[in-house]
From TrEMBL:
Claim: Protein biosynthesis is one of the keywords in the record: no
Cofactor(s) annotated in UniProt: Zn(2+)
Cited function: Liberates mannose from p-nitrophenyl-alpha-D-mannoside in vitro.
GO molecular function, one term: carbohydrate binding
UniProt similarity note: Belongs to the glycosyl hydrolase 38 family.
Name of the protein: Alpha-mannosidase
Cofactor details (free text): Binds 1 zinc ion per subunit.
Species assigned in the record: Hibiscus syriacus (Rose of Sharon)
Signal peptide segment: none
Keyword rRNA-binding part of the UniProt annotation: no
Keywords: Glycosidase, Hydrolase, Metal-binding, Zinc
Enzyme class: hydrolase
Length: 788
């Protein structure tokens, strides 16, 4: 649907939007794309190379933007065209030929032909004084040879156009026609209208040995300042996209369980809105305000339609009469509005003996136990559980109350928080976290968390590039100290402990330690950020330990693979460090971790942010950006999650909890009149065989009924090769137990975007080695199901 960003989207969103676009191309033109054309995103991810490239059946991938230092080196060495292996696990079985333009995505100087451009056109009337055919042919040949000198083989490609061109296409094609005619007549080079596919075929035919590229192309800088600001720009919009992405995944599942319908609410509007929101000037946060408002409006319209579908699907499933095919569902269900801090259905006053009914749906393929703001709940895989909440006037042994303790700056003692295996120790007088203790895995580590900000650089006469939506250019680092006399407020309850901290009038946070969990959850509220001093601010939190990390940390690629990062270092060239802070920030969609010889510290996030390790044993997350003219009244609420493990034991938590963060439980509410809900409704439902759940290393990322009546199922292996000693292994899924109430007629393995059968795709790209590799990837299958 669009040229998506590669830093800030989640890989599930990338797959969904690409699938939608490929379906459109197939339906309208009966064509299957062969080439990835990512010319404008501001850096390029490893996931793009293998998942959104080779796994789609692409022959090649092309882009323009890369670090200016990297480009300079590759120009000298003729290594702008490479074979890119983006996955350590898949290696050569999922590699792709990748071409990087020697300059931007525009023609050589002197060959732009918009109506007002200054490039001299070919004048081929010999009777006119400005006749210039030979002069312009010489210019063309010189530009072609200059590019040939930095390119392997005798084939080169020019992009004839750039931003805001072809408003008057005739002027372009008139000149290109003439150039092709006269250049070919000259004979020194051969010019032709071409396509990236034709160019790729010529490169393959040359039988050249191409250099190998691994990992990714982040961060990107076109000048000494790095484009790492957009990793965090418009954090509210990034969070909105992430929430709706998970909602869309769950809505499609429920749509399938209910059964497709040609009328009534559906998920199409939300699919379209989410797809266009992956644009490299959308979820990246680099769009203008009126464009951001348009994206948000489209998402809201799509959500409102999908919300009706979710309510009707859950009502269908809970209504026992519907389950036997008798009549239509009469149950009315409500949901909590998104981005609103209260939930009217759950806060309504219950009267006349009515009780609140809570239906909790789990979109994951395994059972999970969670604490929500109501009770502790257990939810089956791909199913729901129902809970009845009644009001009571009694207090006594059956009632449970929380206790509240406040600690002032004058208090001189240590506070222990946590009733389960995890204990957090705080200093009362400083109001700071001091130590992390897990009595189960016997990890005990000094740990601090603090807030600060980078002041924004407005640019100079010599270098006017300012810190903003795209570029991160800090002018200094400043810590944020607590301004309140009350350092901590601790709330202790039967299920969890909470530590409330109000640093100042615009930063607060609540740290939660659940009795049954072994990680800390931190919910922060930032804003409105004060900018009356005229200085833009980029807010960060820092987590400090005593680990010896050797300048090394790991960040995820679009929520999939983790990539090793080394501070002030690039694998492909000797880095000249211009921005020691901004140049070491990387995009995070799932998490970041550091490790030493004995322990590893992991942090997971709820949306795209920027992250780094700028000092030994210290992790930094950048949450929000505020420029003086751009964030009046804006407040951001978000979460991150923290855990420390012994070395090599953190992957399971990152992968499992990462899935739970991406796919939160979906709640719906109704009212029970009397005590007859259980007799007239289904209380628990699971689409999976009750004796079965998905393997712990496999996730369902798509379950969708298509217009053809087929079902699209995508399964993702969550672990990289060697990532975990127990779960980095082959996994098997029993489809009959995944769909126990359906008769499977046929299963067809497809390309990732489901626009061609995988067998046919592999024949085209001639990668027989794929079939012999233990795959850690994503499988997309068409499953033809018959109702059982």
């Amino acid at each position: 649907m669009c040229m998506h960003d590669e830093a800030t989207p989640h890989y599930i969103d990338l797959i969904d939007q690409t699938t939608l676009g490929h379906k459109y191309i197939k339906d309208e033109f009966d064509q299957i794309p062969r080439v990835g054309w990512q010319i404008d995103p501001f850096g390029h991810s490893a996931v793009q190379a293998y998942l959104l490239g080779a796994e789609l059946g692409f022959d090649s991938l092309f882009f323009a933007r890369m670090d200016y230092q990297d480009r300079a080196k590759r120009l000298k060495e003729k290594t702008l065209e490479v074979v890119w292996q983006g996955s350590k696990s898949l290696g050569s079985s999922s590699q792709i030929f990748t071409g990087i333009f020697p300059r931007h995505y525009d023609p050589p100087d002197g060959f732009t032909f918009e109506i007002n451009d200054v490039s001299p056109p070919i004048q081929d009337d010999v009777l006119l004084f400005d006749y210039n055919v030979q002069e312009r042919v010489n210019d063309f040949v010189a530009a072609a040879l200059a590019q040939a000198n930095v390119t392997r083989t005798n084939h080169i490609m020019w992009c004839m156009g750039t931003d805001f061109r072809y408003q008057y296409a005739n002027s372009w094609f008139r000149q290109m026609d003439k150039f092709i005619h006269y250049v070919n007549q000259d004979g020194r080079v051969n010019a032709l209208y071409s396509t990236p596919s034709i160019y790729t075929d010529a490169k393959y035919a040359a039988n050249e040995q191409w250099p190998l590229k691994t990992d990714d192309f982040f961060p990107y800088a076109d000048k000494p300042n790095d484009w790492t600001g957009y990793f965090t720009s418009r954090p509210a919009f990034k969070g909105y996209v992430r929430v709706l992405s998970a909602y869309y995944l769950a809505a499609r599942q429920l749509e399938f369980f209910k059964g497709g319908s040609t009328s009534g609410p559906n998920t199409e509007a939300l699919a379209d809105a989410l797809a266009i929101a992956q644009h490299h000037d959308a979820v990246s946060g680099t769009q203008r305000q009126h464009v951001a408002a348009d994206y948000a409006l489209r998402l809201s319209i799509g959500y409102n339609e999908a919300e009706k579908l979710v309510a009707s699907s859950l009502a269908f499933l809970v209504d026992s009469r519907s389950s036997t095919g008798q009549g239509n569902s009469v149950t009315s269900l409500q949901q909590c509005p998104l981005l609103i801090s209260f939930c009217p259905p759950s806060e309504a006053a219950l009267s006349n003996g009515k009780n609140l009914v809570v239906i909790i749906y789990n979109s994951l393929g395994w059972k999970r136990e969670e604490t929500i703001r109501i009770p502790v709940i257990s939810v089956p895989p791909l199913g729901f559980s129902t809970y009845i909440v009644a009001t009571t006037k009694e207090t006594g042994p059956s009632s449970t109350n929380s206790t509240v303790h406040t600690y002032e700056a004058s208090d001189n003692n240590t506070i222990e928080v946590g009733q389960g295996n995890l204990k957090l120790l705080y200093s009362a007088d400083e109001g700071k976290l001091m130590r992390y203790v897990n009595t189960k895995n016997l990890v005990s580590a000094f740990t601090e968390q603090s807030y600060g900000y980078y002041s924004g650089n407005d640019g100079t006469d010599k270098d006017p590039q300012a810190s903003g939506a795209y570029v991160f250019r800090p002018n200094g680092t400043f810590s944020i100290k607590s301004e309140n006399q009350t350092r901590l407020t601790v709330v202790r309850g039967p299920l969890l402990d909470e530590v409330h901290q109000q640093l100042n009038s615009w930063i607060s946070q609540v740290t939660r330690v659940y009795k049954e969990k072994e990680h800390a959850e931190v919910e922060f509220s930032i804003g409105p950020i004060p900018v009356n001093d005229g200085i833009g601010k980029e807010i960060i939190t820092q987590i400090t330990t005593t680990m010896k990390t050797n300048k090394t940390f790991y960040t995820d690629s679009n929520g999939r693979d983790f990539i090793k990062r080394v501070r002030d270092f690039r694998k492909d060239w000797e880095l000249q460090v211009n921005q020691p802070i901004a140049g070491n920030y990387y995009p995070i969609n799932l998490g970041i971790y550091v490790q030493d010889n004995s322990t590893e510290l992991s942090v997971l996030v709820d949306r795209s942010v920027g992250g780094s390790s700028l000092a030994v044993a210290k992790l930094s997350l950048c949450f929000t950006v505020c420029v003086p003219e751009g964030c009046d009244g804006l407040t951001i609420v978000g979460k991150f999650y923290l855990r420390i493990d012994h070395i090599g034991e953190g992957a399971k938590w990152r992968r499992t909890v990462g899935q739970e963060i991406y796919s939160p439980l979906l709640l719906a509410f109704s009212e029970q009149d009397g005590n007859d809900w259980a007799s007239s409704h289904i209380l628990t439902f699971s689409a999976i065989d009750p004796s079965y759940s998905l393997p712990d290393n496999v996730a369902i990322i798509t379950l969708q009924e298509l217009e053809s009546g087929k079902v699209l199922l995508r399964l993702a292996h969550l672990y990289e090769m060697g990532e975990d000693k127990e779960y980095s292994v082959m996994a098997s899924v029993e489809l009959k137990k995944l769909f126990p109430n359906k008769k499977i007629k046929k299963v067809t393995e497809m390309s990732l975007s489901a626009n061609q059968e995988r067998g046919e795709m592999e024949k085209k790209i001639s990668l027989e080695s794929r079939r012999r590799v233990c795959r850690r990837g994503i499988k997309g299958d068409y499953i033809q199901l018959l109702g059982g």
